Amino acid sequence: MSKTKPKKAQQTMDEKLNTLRAGVLGSNDGILTVVGVLFSVAAATSNQFTIFIAGLSDLLACAFSMASGEYASVSTQKDTEKAVVEKERQLLKTNFEDELAAVKRHYMTLGVTETTAMAIAKDLLAKKPLETVVSVKYDMKLGHYMNPWDAAFSSLFSASAGGIFPLFAMTFLPTAMKWPGTIIAVSLSVALTGYLSAVLGKGNVKTAVIRNVIVGIITMFIHYYVGTLF
């Protein structure tokens, strides 16, 4: 029992971290996608309403596109996990010895002797056979699937939240501050998402921040010059 609780807690923490990482990446996509359209349109026209509508339309399109993509991705993952569970359910009925051997090998790789590993495997398969083989062979918790709707709404919110920064900066800042203000807002925003992604992924914070800022600046300048062509 004492081994199950930490594992369950770790799975819950991993899921939360994955959700946070997805949210950070969604925000980053929202920022860069919206500022790209804003800079292209703003370089081509000075009509403030046109710029705002273009940015808002892109923000909504980006948010709903990412939400639908997350929904499809998580739904596919959920279906795959359910199919794996059903496969193992059948194998326990038709090929129990191989399942027993798989569980035994798992515990032997952890340093348990063959005799003890066999005793553990028999005991676990007698009490919770399906839960045991799913956990051992696929590192999955039986009946614990990600909710595709949660993933979709998380992406929808994060992409929308990220895209709001450049949209508001370009729309509501005074004319003299519009361009430099938007560049600063985007640079700070992508620096923050780079920092958060590095912290959550336990990566190099400095590298992630610099990389994100450089990508953000390149994105802005490319779209600005594309807009000036028209």
Automatic annotation (TrEMBL):
Record's keyword terms, sorted: Membrane, Transmembrane, Transmembrane helix
Membrane topology of this protein: Multi-pass membrane protein
Compartments, record wording: Endomembrane system
Membrane in keyword set: yes
Residues passing through the membrane, by range: 20-43, 49-68, 151-173, 179-201, 208-226
Main location: membrane
Record-given protein name: VIT family protein
Originating species: Lactiplantibacillus nangangensis
Lineage, opening ranks: Bacteria, Bacillati, Bacillota, Bacilli, Lactobacillales
